[in-house]
Amino acid sequence: MGLHYELRFVGIGGQGNMLAGTIIAETAVYYENKYATQVPTYTSQVRGGPTKADVIISDEPIQFAEATHIDFLLALDQKTYDMYKKDLKEGAIVLVDSGLVNVPEEDNKKWNVYGYPIIKTAKYDIGNVVTANILAVGMTVELTGIFNKENVKKAIADRVPAAFLDLNTKAYETGIEIAKKLKSEKGK
After folding, report:
1. How close are the terminal C-alpha atoms of the chain, in Å?
2. CA triple 121-32-58, angle to 5 deg
3. pTM of the predicted model, to two decimals?
4. Dihedral over alpha carbons 65, 147, 178, 111 (to 10 degrees)
5. Residue 39 CB contacts under 8 Å (≥ 6 apart), including other chains
6. Nearest to residue 101, comparing CAs of 132, 131, 75?
7. What is the DSSP track for 85-123?
8. 36/27 Cα distance (integer angstroms)
9. Which of 27-36, 61-70, 154-163 has the lowest mean pLDDT?
10. Whether the predicted pLDDT of 108 surpasses 90
11. Which value, in Å, is the radius of gyration of the alpha carbons in the chain?
12. 60 pLDDT exceeds 60?
């Protein structure tokens, strides 16, 4: 069996988790010649309710679209982290917003956890809090190593408004650089 990788993006409505999942899935299908599914889960609240986007990437047709053995988790909210971490594989990569999510010590022992103030960085370093999801996509791409970085940039360009492409490109590239530093600090 070739590539089979499961990703989960969780947070609250309005943080852009659905778009992050869509960009990852579309990169796989449109630019990497892979199979992908993206299954969104959200409450009736448009903003502020729990959201989850599960993405499965595979070299082969995907028979079951539900993610059950998560390789990578992005969490931008404590409640949704606690709700949706249960399907993580031993040794999974976990990326959390360190300003919003506290990871228990027992989780740090089971998973490869990275924490960074993603939303704060988007707001103050990139200049717009709505780029937090694209910053996180850059971090996801670097931490997982499963995509060609230029292909993801193309998928971002397909999805974000042209007027905000430069800002989102900056967020994406900043995310990659941040994740490189986080990995090097862990010695991986």
Report:
1. 25
2. 95
3. 0.93
4. 40
5. 53, 54, 55, 65, 66, 67
6. 75
7. GGGEEEEEEEEEETTT-PPPHHHHHHSEEEEE-HHHHII
8. 9
9. 61-70
10. yes
11. 15
12. yes
14 with 48: CB under 8 angstroms? yes
Residue with tokens 């999974």: 92
Which residues lie across from 12 on neighbouring strands? 50
Decide if pLDDT at 45 tops 70: no
| Burial environment of residue 62 by CB neighbours within 10 A (0 to 12, 13 to 18, 19 or more) | middle
Query: In the sheet that 35-42 helps form, which strands lie side by side, from edge to edge?
Result: 35-42, 50-58, 4-12, 70-75, 88-97, 112-116
In this predicted structure, what is the pLDDT of residue 23? Answer: 96
| CA dist., res. 182 & res. 107, Å (int) | 18
Strand-pair partners of 35: 58
How would residue 94 be classed by pLDDT, with cut points 50, 70 and 90? very high
Q: Is the pLDDT of residue 1 over 80?
A: no
DSSP state letter for 70:
E
- For residues 64-76, average pLDDT: 92
Residue partners of 38: CB distance under 8 A and separation at least 6 = 21, 22, 24, 25, 53, 54, 55
- Does residue 177 register a pLDDT over 90? yes
Whether the predicted pLDDT of 168 surpasses 60: yes
3 state SS of 13: coil
